[in-house]
Amino acid sequence: MSTRIAKQRSVMRKEPRQARSRATVETIVQAGARILSDEGWAGFTTNRIAELAGVSIGSLYQYFPDKLSLVDAIRHRHLDDSMAVMRSIRADALSSAEFAAQLVPAVVAAHSVYPGLHRVLLDEAPSSEEYRNPHSEFEIEYLSYYTQAVATYRKRSPTEADRIAGRVISDAIDGVIHNAARRGYIDDPVMQNELVHLVRLYLSDDRATKNTA
To answer: Hey, how many other C-beta atoms are within 10 angstroms of the C-beta on 202?
Structure first.
């Protein structure tokens, strides 16, 4: 079970403004993500992160006051990467079959960079209350993306039924991919093909259109 901490998100000690500083922060975040993926929360120490990143422990603490702030930065990076993938695949430019065939491999790829990371973020690493907020900016944009996709293929403006269907699709994709990462078969092409098939069939289901005809 995840360790949850009911507090506001830990923030960086200072925001990097110069290119060199931004590169240092990026290196630290990537090193932290790799350690979480490969060694879990038990191996996630500031000394180990600084060593892998090739920076001094003082440089790490210059930007991140503690491990929680760095975990939050890693989570935000993962969420940003996921949204970037989704924004690049638009339902209004694709058939439902094309949409499913492009979206699933892209989401899988985003979770395959550090395949063990998501398991640790879900099951081991502490998190702030922000990440359970169903009204966060990320959650709103994330679910709106799927709602709009459903409405697009049902050829109408989004309805409550479309919002529910959007949640079902997002939960199906999340559940299958996250569990595949947990179990070590995220790269299994059969799993990916089955998920594409599931999403495609659901999006092409015309029951809602028939019910409103």
So the answer is: 16
147-169 as b/e: b if 16+ CB within 10 A: bbbbbbbbeeebeebbbebbeeb
Number of domains in the chain: 2
- Residues in contact with 175: Cβ distance below 8 Å, sequence separation at least 6, in sequence order: none
Report how far residue 172's alpha carbon sits from residue 85's, in angstroms, rounded to the nearest whole number: 17
Other Cβ atoms closer than 10 A to 15: 10
What is the phi-psi region of residue 74: left when phi exceeds 0, alpha when psi lies from -120 to 50, beta otherwise? alpha
In degrees rounded to 5, what are phi and psi of residue 185?
-125, 35
pLDDT tens digits for range 66-125: 999 999 999 988 889 989 999 999 999 999 999 999 999 999 999 998 988 888 888 888
Helix count and strand count (H, E) for the chain: 10, 0
Tell me, yes or no, whether 54 and 137 share the same domain: no
Assessment of whether the complete model's pTM goes beyond 0.85:
no
Question: pLDDT per residue over 30-70, tens digit each?
Answer: 999 999 999 999 999 999 999 999 999 999 999 999 999 99
Helices (H), 125-185: 137-153, 160-183
SS3 68: helix
Tokens, residue 104 = 């699933």
Query: Is the domain of 51 the same as that of 88?
Result: no
The CATH number for 53's domain is 1.10.10.60
